[in-house]
């Protein structure tokens, strides 16, 4: 994901991953100027496969969330 960096972005993304019961195996975080470049390698239990459509929608909700209305802890 490459988006404009903002306070709480990494936290909000981690909350979405946790909500979908994904385990982060590796995370590579970089900030280049105003851009945040975050790469997550995740795994999940074979008997609890995440709903990819819902996961994508939840991640996009975080990525397009305006800075002024962002609330940490809201997922």
Q: How does this structure look, described?
A:
The protein is built from two helices and three strands. The protein is α+β, with helices and mostly antiparallel strands. It has a single domain, classed as 2-Layer Sandwich (Alpha-Beta Plaits). Strands 1-3-2 form a three-stranded antiparallel β-sheet, with helices on one face. Helix 1 runs antiparallel to helix 2. The radius of gyration is 13 Å and the shape is globular.
Summary of the model, kept short:
The chain is of the alpha+beta class and 75 residues long. The chain contains two helices and three strands; from the N terminus they run βαββα.
Structure classification: alpha+beta
| DSSP strand tally | 3
Oligomer: single chain
According to CATH, the fold-level topology is Alpha-Beta Plaits
Tell me the name of the CATH class. Alpha Beta
What is the strand content?
25-35%
Helix content: 25-40%
Using brief descriptors, characterize the structure shown.
75 residues; alpha+beta; Alpha-Beta Plaits; 2 helices; globular; disordered C terminus
């Amino acid at each position: 994901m490459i988006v404009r960096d903002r306070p709480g972005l990494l936290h909000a993304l981690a909350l979405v991953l946790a909500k979908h019961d994904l385990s982060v195996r590796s995370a590579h975080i970089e900030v280049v100027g105003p851009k945040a470049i975050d790469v997550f390698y995740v795994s999940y239990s074979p008997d609890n496969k995440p709903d990819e459509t819902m996961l994508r929608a939840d991640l996009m909700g975080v990525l397009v969330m305006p800075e002024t209305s962002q609330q940490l802890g809201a997922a």
